[in-house]
Each structure stands twice: as C-alpha cells, then as structure tokens.
Amino acid sequence: MKLFATFLVVLALIGCSQSSNSASAQTAPPILVDQFGYLPTLEKVAIIKDPQTGFDADKSFVPGQRYAVVNTATGQSVYTGTPRAWKNGKVDTASGDRVWHFDFSSVRAPGRYVIRDLDKRVDSYAFEISPNVYKPVLKAAFKTFYLQRAGYEKTRALAGPWSDGASHLGRGQDPQARLFNRPRDASTQRDLRGGWYDAGDYNKYTSWTADYIRELLGAYLENPNVWTDDFEIPESGNGVPDLLDEVKWGLDWLERMQNKDGSMLSVMGLSSGSPPSSAKKPSLYGPQNTSASFSAAGAFAIASKVFSRVPRFEADAKRYASRAEKAWLWAEANPNVKFWNNDPRSNSDGLAAGQQEVEADRLAKKKLIAAVHMSVLTGDAYFDGVIGRLYQTVKPMTANSPDGFERTLAADLLYYARQGKTSPRVSARIKRDYVSKVLNGHNGWPTKQNDEDAYRAFVDGYWWGSNSTKAKRGAVYTQAIVAGVGNRSRTEYLNAAADYLHYIHGANPLNKAYLSNMGRYGAENSVKEFYHAWFQNGSVWDAVGSSRYGPAPGFLVGGPNQYYERDNCCNSTCGGAGDKLCKIPVKSPPSGQPPAKSYTDFNETWPINSWEVTENSNSYQVAYIRLLSKFTR
Q1: pLDDT tens digits for range 552-577
Q2: Which CATH architecture has domain 2-129?
Q3: Which of 48, 127, 392, 505 has the fewest C-beta atoms under 10 angstroms from its C-beta?
Q4: Is the torsion defined by CA of 157, 158, 163, 169 positive or negative?
Q5: Averaged over 594-610, what is the pLDDT?
Q6: What is the H or E stretch that residue 516 is in?
C-alpha cells in the first residue's frame, strides 16, 4: 500500500505527466532504448534508426561516430563508443529502416542514464540500470487482472482514478444469467458472477480463462520468490502470494461454470458500458462443450497441485482435484460436443466474440495439455498413455509452437518432463525435441545467432497480437533455462529473451513502450490510448493528454498488425454511424506501412476495428507477465 500511496500523490501531477507523454510521442528520438531500463549484468544495446520507408521516412538520421552513456544525475559520461551498422547498412524489410547498434553492456552501475549522440547532440529517452528495474512494471502489468475483474468493486484506494463499482451484478446480469437461446426461460438461470473481462470487451470465456490460470501458475512455479504479497490488489497483506489470490478469483468463476455432470459451460456474453458498472443489459451464456471441459480440467488440475501447498487452501485444492477429474471424464466421454459462439453454425450470432478452438486439431492439443496436468496431479499411468499417444499425432514441438492458441503446449510438456515420475525415455525425447525443433528451430536460436532482426527480437510476421508473439518468442529461451536444456549458457539465453522485453518496452520502430499509460513508471512514450470498452472515445479515460485521466496503466496492446483493415462494409455501406466513420480518412499508420510499423494509438470501434491493432487481451498479458517475471526478483 505504501507504493500506491506514493502513486496517489503522483496523480496530483497527472496533467503535467500526460502532456509530457503526448509531446514525447511526437518528437520520439531516433535512439531507441528499453524505456524502463536494464539489469546490470545483462546485455544493453541501444538501437539507432534511419527510416527509409513508412510514415517516418522523412525523418532521416545517420548517427555520428561518437556515442556516450550519460548519467542524468551528474551529467557525466560513463562510457563512450561507436555504433555498429546492422548488416552493413542493409534496409530491414520488416521496419523499412537502416539500423545501427550501440552496445553499452559494460555499464553496470545503478543509476539513470541517456544514450547521447555526441556529434548530432541527440539523446535517447532516459532509462534505469538496476537489479529491480522491472518489479514496478510487473506489478502494474499484473494489476490489470484486478481491473479486469467482473462483479468486483475497484476502490479509489487501490485503483485511483480508475475506480468503479462492481459491474454486471444487476437484474438479469451475471448472478441471474440465462442460456443464450432461452433468455426468457427462468429455469436456465445460473449464478455466474465473477471471472475476468477477457480483453477490451467484457465477455468471459471458459477455455481462455483456464489458459490464463495455467499460465499464471506456470509463472508462479518457475519463479515463486517474485510473487510476493504486495501487488496492491484487495487481498494484498493476507499472507498469501497475490498471484494465487488473483488466480483463485478466476477459479471461483470456473467452478460456477461447471455443471453437475462435470461439463463446462463455454462462454458468457456481457453487455458493454463505460465505466463497466454502467453496463445494464442481461448476461447470457453458452452451453457446455468439449473444448471448455478439457481446458478446465487442466486448469483445475494444476491449481490443485499448487494450492495444496498452501495450508489455508487445502480444502480448495481437494475440490479442484475433484472438479478436474469430473471435467476430464465428461470431455473424454463426449469428445465431439461443439458450440460455436457468435456463429451461425450454433445460431449464436451476437454471443460474445471469437472462437475457443473447437476444431479437431486444437481439441487434441487441449486434451494433451489437460493430460499433462492430470498426470502430474494424480500420478495415474493412464494419463501417461494418453500423453504418449497424442504426442505422436499432435506433433507439439515445431518451430511455430509458440505462435498458436495452445502456445504453452511446449512449456507444459517440459513441465511434464521435469516430473520425477515421468519415464526417463519420454522426458529425454521431449527435451530433445524441444531443443532441435523449437529452441534451435528456424524461428529460434539461429535468428539470434545470425542477427536476423534489426530490432533484435525476431518474429516471422506481424499479425493480430504480434506483441504477444514477441513475448512468447522470448519465453522460448527462458523455458530452456527452466528445463535445463540447450547448448548455450544461461546468460546467453537470458540475453536473447531480454531482447524481446526491450522491444516491448520501446526498442522498436515506433520507439514506443507498448504498455498503456506508463509515464509515471519511467516510459516517456507509452501507449496513450487503446481499444477498451471502459476507456472509450470521449470518456475521461480516453487518451493520455486529451482526457482527464487516460487509460489505466499496464495493459499490453496487440501491437503492429500488417493485416489490419477496416470492416469490408466500408467498401459499400455499413449503415448509420458506421458510414460516417468510414468517411474518416484511413489511418496510415497502421495501414500502408512496413509490417513492424503497422501500428498507431487509436480506439475507434466498428467498422474502424482498432481492436485488430490496439486492443488488450488477457492472453497477451499473461504471456508478457510470465516472461517479465523471469527478470524480476
């Protein structure tokens, strides 16, 4: 609470900080750094860009020969050197930039610094070098889950200007939710309160919530010491790591979504409003399906394993184990129960959005993940057999494994390989396949070794959620460390993973920290607006600098999307207000840009569809949190 008290004092200066953030976005220097900072013992490389194509092509910059690291407190240079041209001056296809790297890894002393071009008299944004530089950032990123809680008050003491009453608890809403196709039938009424808003909308998805729970618990198991009891959520100070408290909030909702026969309801569609408590329309849910049930089985299983170690949660852990077994048994007995939300195939148009991987190949992957955690929980050899059979058919270890919806599959299998009861032969094969096909696959270490990405964080494309892909690619290297595999040193893998953090934190073609409203955390150019029903256009939480508060801090946005486009109806007619929005000139960026520059801060709704670029998602958030936690203590 002490840190947040300081934060509330800072709010008195919020107008000034917002203006600074907005101005800095317009004058972003061509010298790019991690705007939060660097760990003392790891590599530190500033990136200098000379745009050749894209919206900033008129801002040509050729660096001088003399660069310095300058301590902002003393004004003294602590290191000097010369930038090195990337690929001998080749233009990077992804960004359209020529790029130079300035390595200042030898600077280890804690402090606040800038990188200065001594010849051109240009400074980078300021940054910290500190062993604890990322802990405040981790806390802000993690706290977004508290802000995403449905049916829970966000108090002024904890949420500051992003306070709000408990949402979706009114008549016909979450405590009285009804089946989507029988909204007038009181016999379908269920108490389905709780859970997290999934993204910039308020819908809730069983499969995806289960994924978030597994990934958060994975982050906890891999670095438990970082998950302290002071992350400024309502449960802070109760003697339990705050991550477990937040995960339990998600588990409470999953329990409500389970039927007596073990099956899991699939989805909930919640109405919109700004702030969330202003949403008044009824809440509807979708029926059970196999996808949700396998997903929940895995989440309940790993939760039982972890929570059994905390005395006050022993009863919960036993209950989770029972629920995991019931969900598994139902899903295995009913392997092809499908429900497509917001889809004509299930006559469910308008119920939430997106899909939850009901196709056969994705169901097989979900079953494999669930079997891993059921095996670890129960020790039953039956699940080992399921894992062995599915491993042959799913082919879980490929160079593209980190990119898909089942992005944690490789990490889950490495977790299974680390268990003492796992067959040594199976364990060895999993680790061997991970090294050869994921870690050293064509999207892995060779891209680092060959310096393939000018911005040092290779991905093979910039599509919807590219920032999440960056985080997942970074995790390929941290998972190698956790599993003790690979032929490189721990430090080499940490450096490779950290480059993906640096990209997200500002070492990218936009010179933008892709987290929302992080000026008070040290990022001089962070996301000022993004797609979220709460922080919509015209609200007091709209854009930093032009609204009273701007959006809440710490949300990771989707990032550059080279395939972004307006709704097709703009080519003919959308009707009403949609047609008016279509008359607004197409934004470039994100349109018509090199892939890595296909981004801008905006939050227009349909048919402009800014969510393809700037929307947050809990899936992005957990991938980023899991990676960031490896660099925090």
Answers
A1: 999 999 999 999 999 999 999 999 89
A2: Sandwich (2.60)
A3: 392
A4: negative
A5: 97
A6: strand 513-516
Residue 351 and residue 284 in contact, taking contact as beta carbons nearer than 8 Å:
yes
Helix (H) / strand (E) element for 45: namely: strand 45-51
* Percent with pLDDT over 90 in the chain: 92
DSSP states along 294-336: HHHHHHHHHHHHHHTTSGGGHHHHHHHHHHHHHHHHHHHHSTT
Share the mean pLDDT of the chain. 94
Q: What is the pTM of this model?
A: 0.95
Closest CA to 561 of 497, 633, 625, 470: 470
Domain boundaries, the chain: 2-129, 151-193+203-358
SS3 205: strand
Residues 213 and 304: their CA atoms lie apart, in Å, by 12
pLDDT digits (tens, 9 = 90+) for 371-406: 999 999 999 999 999 999 999 999 999 999 988 777
Distances (CA, A) of 255 to 192, 250, 300, 317, 561: 9, 9, 9, 12, 36
Residues in the chain: 633
Helix (H) / strand (E) containing 179: strand 178-179
Residue 149: how many other CB atoms lie within 10 Å: 22
Alpha helices in 105-205 (DSSP H): 135-147, 156-159
Question: Quick one: tokens of 207?
Answer: 């499969």
Q: Are 617 and 199 in contact (CB under 8 A)?
A: yes
Instruction: Please classify residue 379 by burial: count the beta carbons closer than 10 Å to its beta carbon, then call 0-12 exposed, 13-18 middle and 19+ buried.
Output: exposed
Is the fold of 2-129 the same as that of 151-193+203-358? no
Separation between Cα atoms, residue 382 and residue 400, nearest integer Å: 29
Over residues 466-513, the pLDDT tens digits come to 999 999 999 999 999 999 999 999 999 999 999 999 999 999 999 999
Query: In which residue are the tokens 């003790």 written?
Result: 484
- For tokens 């207000």, name the residue: 577
CB 356 within 8 A of CB 208: yes
How far is it, in rounded angstroms, from Cα 579 to Cα 596?
A: 29
CATH number of 151-193+203-358: 1.50.10.10
Distances (CA, A) of 146 to 149, 166, 246, 307: 5, 12, 7, 20
C-alpha distances out from residue 420 to 357, 375, 376, 478, 591, Å: 32, 12, 10, 21, 51
